[in-house]
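name: query_chain
kind: protein
chains: 1
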Amino acid sequence: MRAGTADPSYLTHRAKRGRLFPNSDDSLIYRGNISDAQQSAIASNGWILSVLIRVLDLPTQPNGSNADSNSIMVKVRPGQGSRNFDLVIGYAISDGMPAIIANGIAHEITNTYSLIEVEYTAKIGERGYAILTMSIDGVRRYNYTGASANGTGDPYISWGASASTTVGHAHWSRVIFSAVPDFRSPCFCDFQITTNSTVRFQVTDVRRGVYYRFEKSTNLVDWSFLGATRPSESDDLTQIRPIETKTQFYKVLVQ
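structure:
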């Protein structure tokens, strides 16, 4: 088995900070432990993984989805209350073009290095849901909205070449793991009256998977249901509604 190689300056810099280290003197896997404070933030909000890698060859196909049975892999073990994830990386010729294979999904290589991004957004609210997505070179290739938390044990992230029968050779340029920023309930909306008797209101900094409920009122006392949504992306949320009365109030709730 040939080991995956990495940018020495990156690993050295990180190792000096005491965060990343080989499992043993002759191990081909690097590991970074996740602190208790980091684990708590990850369990509440989710995590983001970014891997920039160049796969040179993988003569044998990845051996299933188990990271421990493959030569080029990343393991995310974020601990209790969060979502485990294994990233198994391979290489193949698909339709005459070189392609990187991430968890069985082939993606034609358009540049020397491939950027693999994975994001797990934790469930927020009673009606929200957790989402796990994977993108390759900016193209969404995997979306799973039933991503319940399954993490247990000591939290860590590891990558490199596991002890397996597969053979691979890769250059690791960057491995970044971080927590999703804290969720903040919407404090206000931007409203705009349009010329065609409709109102456009916008909620900023929307979190994907969160259940947003919109209500309307004419007196700020009696409220009725207007609409609801669970966005699949973290971005601004815009709704356009007809103006039904001369005086109309709107609000947005997180449930």
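note: The mean pLDDT is 78.
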